[in-house]
Write a structure and sequence with these properties.
The structure holds two protein chains of two kinds. Chain A is of the alpha+beta class. Chain A has one helix and ten strands, in the order αββββββββββ. The chains are: A alpha+beta, B alpha+beta.
Chain lengths: 153, 187
């Protein structure tokens, strides 16, 4: 009669159970790590997006600067110039090499690894402007860019 | 009683596996909630979407004939008093008028605007955003309903100091990338 130790079946079963638990916990740790990494990147992307969006939109909505009276493309600097009713002009540019968005005198360095595209401007109904500054991040399929519509109703 | 010398009893195995499973399930549920909330927080009221909502709100308030918003408020109050709907839908394009769907004047321009911001649906309701459960299927999206339910029903109505008025109404927007934003309207 066997008085000590485990049988082979007991050991196999206990190992199998332990493996299931360890695999589950490991999966959990990996997901947690991904959440943490994504959280950091997404937070920064959204923070940058919010800062740029706020700065441009505040000017566009500000009664002090007046309505947008002209919107032109500067071929030399590859920027768009916004002329306000008050006579003040601000320009928006993207630096795709150094990964920056430049508005007026402010330069916004984007999140490392993200990619800023060229500004696209669409004119509709003669006076409506649709401005899009695309910002993407390789592992995330969303656009973290800026979208601004100037619509006259 | 004869002493058992090898293996576990079925009951012992069952009790242990049940305990382990319970712990794992509890862990999974908690963890799932964390991931869900994490993803949710980034999709609600982002600055970019709030500005988009502000642009759409301005369009609705300053429509060409000036009566659309006035009529919208009257229609909403009428539907609520008739206990029909607690919200109205604003059409993204020139979809005409149905029982609770309203099309904005200058709908062609509005259509360009909503497609630019990738708007899925716009609803107009009271500031408290308290909808009836029967209304939920009309919103066609469980995530949208979940977002609406997060809008706090403030016992003291919010006050807009600039306009010197209480926020009475609200527009709530669902964007096509599962993002949501809402703004209160003070007149």
């Amino acid at each position: 009669m066997k008085n000590k130790g485990f049988t082979l079946v007991e050991i196999i079963v206990s190992f199998a159970l332990t493996m299931i638990v360890v695999l589950f916990l490991f999966q959990l740790v990996i997901t947690l790590k991904n959440v943490y990494t994504n959280n950091f990147v997404v937070s920064n992307l959204i923070l940058k997006q919010a800062n740029i969006s706020k700065m441009i939109n505040n000017d566009l909505l500000s009664p002090n600067l007046g309505n947008v009276s002209d919107f032109t493309y500067d071929q030399v600097n590859k920027c768009y110039n916004i002329l306000f009713g008050s006579g003040i002009m601000h320009s928006i540019c993207t630096d795709t090499i150094n990964n920056k968005v430049i508005y007026d005198n402010y330069e916004f360095d984007l999140v490392k690894g993200s990619k800023v595209g060229n500004i696209s401007v669409e004119r509709k109904n003669t006076s409506d402007l649709y401005i899009h500054i695309p910002i993407s991040y390789p592992d995330l399929d969303k656009d973290y860019g800026i979208k601004i519509a100037l619509v006259n109703n | 009683m004869k002493k058992r010398e090898k293996g576990f009893m079925l009951v012992e195995t069952l009790v242990v596996s049940t305990l382990v499973s319970t712990v794992l399930i509890a862990l999974y549920v908690q963890f799932n909630n964390i991931v869900k909330n994490f993803n949710r927080d980034f999709n609600y009221n982002s600055i970019n979407n709030l500005y988009a909502t502000q642009t759409i709100k301005k369009f609705i308030l300053k429509d060409a004939d000036g009566n659309f918003y006035k009529n919208l408020k009257l229609e909403l109050e009428k539907k609520i008093s008739e206990n029909k709907f607690y919200f109205l839908k604003i059409a993204n394009a020139c979809d005409g008028v149905s029982d609770n769907l309203y099309s904005v004047p200058n709908c062609n321009i509005f259509s360009d605007l909503t497609s630019f911001y990738q708007v899925e649906q716009i609803i107009f309701t009271r500031e408290s955003a308290k909808l009836k459960e029967e209304d939920y299927p009309l919103l066609k999206s469980q995530n949208f309903v979940a977002f609406i339910n997060t809008i706090k029903n403030d016992p003291d109505p919010m006050f807009d100091d600039d306009l010197n008025q209480i926020y009475n109404y609200r527009i709530i927007i669902e964007f096509s990338n599962n993002e949501y934003a809402t703004l209160a309207i003070a007149n």
